[in-house]
């Protein structure tokens, strides 16, 4: 079985607290500066500036840190999950309001928690999509005829035994919804029935 490469997270941004991989106050101030720059560009009628590199690094560290959690780290597509998480954070960076107060604590909302939630729900969406794709792949293999696979002459007997075992292990209950639907053949009247 192929070993999944380990994710490497950069050295902590906050040297006082090596336990944390990101400095929340620096990220919040960078997002405030970006928000004011975007508002100034909109009022001047100029194109909005790009997301600062520091904020992009923070998004990447958030996605990597979340991917190291026990419920996400063992998927084979964890790299895709990280990429989707960063893209989602970049998509919603303009909708984050750093001045919004939490209605319960009356403190400003944390950018770290906002974008961690964005990544979390993106990861769940990716897992759901990949599970559906796996079912589609299984249905294709299940509905394929063994004769469609090209074989060497000496492998023919062993392959058909292994293929039959594999198909029986798949089970049809979760695959049936993706199998192609067979249309019933319409019976055309033959010449004798037309005569009668």
Structure characterization notes:
- This protein is mainly α and 196 residues long.
- It has 2 domains: 1-134, no CATH class; 144-178, no CATH class.
- Helices cover 53% and strands 0% of the residues.
- It has helices at residues 24-44, 53-67, 78-91, 111-143, 156-170, 191-195.
- Helix 2 (53-67) crosses helix 3 and helix 3 (78-91) packs across helix 4.
- The protein is elongated.
- The relative contact order is 0.09.
Question: Short description, anyone?
Answer:
The protein is built from six helices and no strands.
List the helices and strands and how they pair.
Blueprint: H1 24-44, H2 53-67, H3 78-91, H4 111-143, H5 156-170, H6 191-195
Quick tags:
196 residues; 2 domains; 0% strand
Order of helices and strands: HHHHHH
Largest sheet, described in full? none
Distance separating the two termini: 67 Å
What fraction of residues sit in β-strands? under 5%
* Helix and strand composition category: mainly alpha
Taking pLDDT < 50 over at least 5 consecutive residues as the criterion, the unreliable ranges are: none
Quaternary structure state of the chains depicted? single chain
Number of helices: 6
Q: In which range does the helix fraction lie?
A: 40-55%
Overall geometric form:
elongated
Q: What would you report as the Rg, rounded to the nearest angstrom?
A: 27 Å
Task: Give the averaged pLDDT, no decimals.
Answer: 78
Q: What is the strand tally?
A: 0
Number of domains: 2
């Amino acid at each position: 079985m192929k070993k999944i490469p380990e994710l490497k997270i950069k050295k902590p941004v906050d040297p006082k607290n090596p336990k944390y991989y990101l400095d929340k106050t620096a990220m919040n101030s960078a997002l405030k500066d970006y928000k004011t720059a975007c508002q100034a560009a909109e009022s001047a009628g100029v194109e909005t500036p790009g997301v600062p590199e520091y904020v992009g690094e923070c998004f990447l560290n958030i996605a990597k840190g979340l991917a190291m959690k026990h419920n996400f780290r063992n998927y084979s597509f964890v790299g895709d999950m990280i990429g989707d998480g960063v893209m989602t954070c970049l998509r919603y960076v303009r909708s984050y309001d750093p001045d919004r107060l939490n209605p319960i604590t009356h403190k400003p909302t944390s950018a770290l928690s906002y974008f961690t939630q964005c990544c979390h729900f993106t990861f769940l969406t990716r897992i759901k999509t990949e599970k559906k794709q796996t079912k589609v792949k299984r249905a294709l293999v299940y509905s394929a005829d063994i004769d469609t696979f090209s074989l060497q002459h000496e492998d023919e007997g062993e392959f058909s035994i292994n293929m039959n075992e594999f198909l029986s292990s798949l089970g049809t209950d979760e695959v049936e919804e993706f199998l192609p639907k067979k249309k019933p053949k319409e019976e055309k009247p033959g010449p004798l029935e037309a005569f009668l």
